[in-house]
Design brief:
Helices cover 79% and strands 0% of the residues. By secondary structure, the protein is mainly α. Keywords: Membrane, Transmembrane, Transmembrane helix.
Length: 194
Amino acid sequence: MDNKSSESKSKWQIIFSLLFISVLFYLLWLLVTWFISVFNSLQKEVAAALIAASATIVVSVLSVVIAKYYEKKRAIELELRNKKIPIYEEFVEFLFKLLMNKKLEGKPMTEQEVLKFMSGFTQKLLVWGSDDVVLQWSKYRNMFVLEDNPDTRKTMWQMEQLLIAIRKDTGHKNKAYKKGDILKLFINDVDKYL
């Protein structure tokens, strides 16, 4: 019985919707024909002036609306970028600490420190990271989770892809880079892997 009543209700909703749309189109047609008859009864000079004035008003309103839309969009992008940059700076700082801690402090980072950072970074990235950065982080992270002894070359190249995605997300173009260019900034012997 519920099934029949829902079918009946659905049919009436469709009929009512079609009727409502038909009435709206009819009213729109009446409005357009009325405007045409008003313009036809006016002198050519007056009609031309009305059309020019209407066009000026429409263009002015559209330009203000479009400008406000892009201004709001830009403000949102700026706010997002301001939230992302500290997270990305924290990652780069961690990366350098991971690579240089043994030389600078005499001991490498502990597994606990690495896991703690990766967990916190993943949480922040989930909220603020762009799609591309999240994807590259997932690929990079999975190399360590899924493989006991990941290939050094693969992890280096994936790290570089992650860094490029981070740079792109913060507004850089990244057009002139070749494979290994970013890694050369902090890995001295990267050329032997190329």
